[in-house]
Amino acid sequence: VYRAGRERETPANLLLAATLVEVRGRLLELIRRLPAAQPWLEPLREHAERRLRDLLRACELLLCEPVLRPLLAKAQLLAADERRLAELEEEVELDARRRPRELRAYLRLLELRRRLREEVRMLGGEVEELGRTLALRITLDKLYELYGFTLLLQALADELKPRSARVDSEGRELKLETGRGEVSVFYNALPERLESRVAKARALGLIDGEVDRDLVRRLRGLPDTIVLARLGEGERRLLLLDYKYTDDYRYLSQARFKALAYLYEFDADCAAVVAPRPRRGSGEDEEALEHRGFYDRIAERGGATVLIDSNGKILAIVYADPREDRVESALKALRAVVRLTFS
Description:
Helices cover 51% and strands 14% of the residues. The protein is α+β, with helices and mostly antiparallel strands. The termini are far apart.
């Protein structure tokens, strides 16, 4: 596009230099706007900054071209003046229309400029979204939830060996196609086709009147993860999981009662509590003290399954310490739960 010698300060060369200055300024602004990240998200922030700086270096390299470098001061003034920049665009386009054979490259420059500015604008939106992610305060409870969910997905893949996996359009359901049928995984979402005994119940005031049915429906539970399988000949299997980031015996006992309630409410085959191994007690809780021996004994086995009744319902406790040297142990325990539920 550009020309050398005395003719280098052409409208096209100025527009090219001003465009590069614009892009450089926008990239610098995006880098400055990247917020500090939580420690576990710092690698993501560093990767994003590296990519932006790579683009910045490419832009600065072009500005160092012998023909464009002398135009840098004027290009900086143009880049800061939207009105003058628009006039320069019109001038370059008019030149190209008047002399299409000689100045055909000018039209490509204009098209490139529009595309480049649009892509930088879109990049800005992506950086803003990334910034919201980096600034997000993720609690340890939520982080442990994600850890447990990741382990479960690996256990499902190991045991069920799905042929394919896809996520529905709303991002609420992960569908796994296996040799025996379809398995759906829901994270913090309750599918409409999963009935809750509580949601269908009636509630009557002790003195008078019936409680609004919609209010009763809202009392239904919401397990952290639901794994619903439709196997051959209409067979249904249901696994429910709750993740509890606690090493307190009392809270583990409470989580166990909640899992038992899920077994009844949703008529599940297995309800599991995934938690680190308990190591402490809080307050005087006689019930938790009574249970402590059981929780300690099953620790060396990675957890336990409790066969509730003759119908085969299972309560599972899975110990999954969030430590690198305990990942394989937690995976082994979750694989056993998946096997028991879907075998």
